[in-house]
Amino acid sequence: QEQLVESGGGLVQSGGSLRLSCAASRFILDYYAISWFRQAPGKDRERVSCISSSDDSTNYADFVKGRFTISRDNAKNTVYLQMLSLEPGDSAVYYCAAAPACGHPNDYWGQGTQVTVSS
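User: That's the sequence. What structure does it adopt?
Assistant: Structure tokens below.
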């Protein structure tokens, strides 16, 4: 069973930054696009960003454009989400997920990591 493991969440003040990590197997990173999602209490899960496996193309939700950057380090089998200029509205559990391509249904999910931004 393939696994995704998130880390890097925590408590940060408004305007601060965090870098989330999603550790995955070589198989996952070679053949699957990796997305980051988030879900705040009482709200629907929303897609944040995605990076493809084929050409490392990326896309972002409008609400994070210019603040968040997704990247991958194949040597470390890890996908990152660098988050800058964090706002209280960014507080949520962040999940990484793997799909055959960005926008496709995800086959694998991580357990999530909590991000809390204080005002």
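The mean pLDDT is 96.
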